[in-house]
Amino acid sequence: MDNDVNALTLGEWTFGQARGLRHVAMVAVGTSIGGGLILNGALVRGDRGYGGEVGHTTVDLDGPDCVCGSRGCVKVYASGADIARQARSLLRADRTSILLELVGGDPNRIDAPQVFAAAAQGDPVAVTVVARAAQALGAGVGNLINLYNPELILLGGSVMEAGEILMEPVVRWARFYAFEAAFDRTRIVRSTLSKESSVQGAAALFLYERSRGRLG
Ligand SMILES: [Zn+2]
Questions:
Q1: Domain harbouring 46, CATH code
Q2: Which residue from 15, 122, 151, 175 has the fewest beta carbons nearer than 10 Å?
């Protein structure tokens, strides 16, 4: 069984920004975080389909528990759901945040786009959460570079729609955590594909499997 992100990765590889490349990684940051990985021109699924799941690699040994059973994963800092969760948590101690105004005083209504909007206005709670998300995601990207030395890393998913406020510090932290020589040769760009491109992804997956003789 294939995850959506493998299909998106193949979509970028077949029709999009990763065409013609041999080593490509995708990190899709949405409500959760998914990964896709192409090495030596082949999709890496691993033995049980967990290959490339950078969102569930540990970036903090004693960090918060994760749904995967581990703790301190990239996901618990950088997924959309976790960005909102961290903001809600910090708001318990800081009732002056403009985030509270944005959600009409109800912290349960906070979502990731509101956190980015508040961060853009310099709100300390939101700035703290975005900084932590960017550092965790940057560490995950740096780990991808050191593990696989890809030519291209695609960052996609709804959370990346925040734009430069997230992209810039993620790239900066990736540079910090990765081998310099490997980082310098890795392009890190936003993926233009989304869940709405799932038809492209499904088509790419079909073409990929057929090219490997797994489909009749
Ligand atoms: Zn996890």
A1: 3.30.420.40
A2: 122
- List average pLDDT for each run of 10 residues in the chain, which is 216 residues long: 81 94 97 95 91 94 96 98 97 90 92 97 97 98 97 96 98 98 97 76 88 75
Distance 177 CA to ligand 1 centre (A): 20
The structure tokens 């499904």 sit at: 202
Does the predicted model carry a pTM greater than 0.90? yes
The catalytically annotated residue of 2, 4, 60, 94 is 4
Concerning whether 106 is annotated as a catalytic residue, the answer is: no
- Contact between 139 and 169 (Cβ < 8 Å): no
**Does 117 map to a domain?**
yes
CA of 157 to the centre of ligand 1 (A): 17
How many domains does the chain contain in total?
A: 1
